[in-house]
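In response to reviewer comment 3 from the previous cycle, which asked for concrete evidence that the modeling workflow produces usable outputs, we include below a single protein chain processed end to end. The sequence was submitted unchanged, and the resulting structure tokens are shown without manual editing.
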Amino acid sequence: MPIIDYETDFYAWASQQAELLRQRQTNNLDWANLAEEIETIGRSEKRQLASLLEVLIMHLLKWQYQPNLRSRSWQLTIKEQRLRLAKLLQENPSLKHGLTEAVLSVYPLSVISAERETGLSNYPEHCPYTPEELLSNQFLPD
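The workflow returned the following structure tokens.
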């Protein structure tokens, strides 16, 4: 079987590499590109964690700082992000170890999004929610 070039047809390359792995034909594997793709998958999971946290924090800020505008839509978005986070963390338990760091990195982006949507600019400098609160279905800030 001719080896498919990574740069020419990624889908065919990936399918072929998977088959070579299943058959334990390690001599024909494209080790360098396989390692790069596996690392990319890990970074993708981390980016998904950050994205979910960013949206969740933004909606919690809106919920807390605009109590007169609270809506079922905001509440459902908070619930949805928590469900998505729970699923991601269940599938990738090691991401929990980086949760605090992820919150620190996305909080400024959450504030910008909240400012854009609310017109307010009085948000705390640091995230007022703990990782446990962010993941708790019972937590909604007052």
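The two ends are 64 Å apart (CA to CA). We consider this sufficient to address the reviewer's concern, and the full set will be provided in the supplementary archive.
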